[in-house]
Design a protein that fits this description.
Helix content is 87%, strand content 0%. With 158 residues, it is mainly α. The longest helix is centred in the middle third of the chain and has 37 residues, at 38-74. The relative contact order is 0.15.
Length: 158
Amino acid sequence: MNTYLLLKTLHILSSVLLVGTGFGSAFYMYFANRSGNVQAQAVVSRLVVRADWWFTTPAVVLQPLSGLAMMHLAGWSWHTPWLLLSVALYMLAGACWLPVVAMQVRMARMASASAAQGLPLPAAYQQLARRWEALGYPAFIAMLAVYGLMVNKPALWG
């Protein structure tokens, strides 16, 4: 296997890990938050934070590194429209993801404290959950668009 194909394999696997972990985490957090079960919310929010550190963060780092290396090896220009749009959408997803990570940490702490004390979640938890969800939709849509651009490499303009 040549260097380009090795990078492409790593790029694809890390993108699947990135989007798959994000979607799976969102699925479980969404439903745990609607369950009204503070214990479940505490466990799920803690595991979502862990999944972000263990899986999503390394993939977030590997994606641009492997992408840049492939771009160089394949001779693609930075001015290639589908690449520019892919990078912009990836950055949009990242701009949504960074505050989400901070929210998840806060939510996990609140849920753990409430569960340990046998108390309901504070109103601040629900506010964070709504913001967390609102930021998740554009991030996920942006990543789906990146997949489409990477696979199809359309001639967009120019």
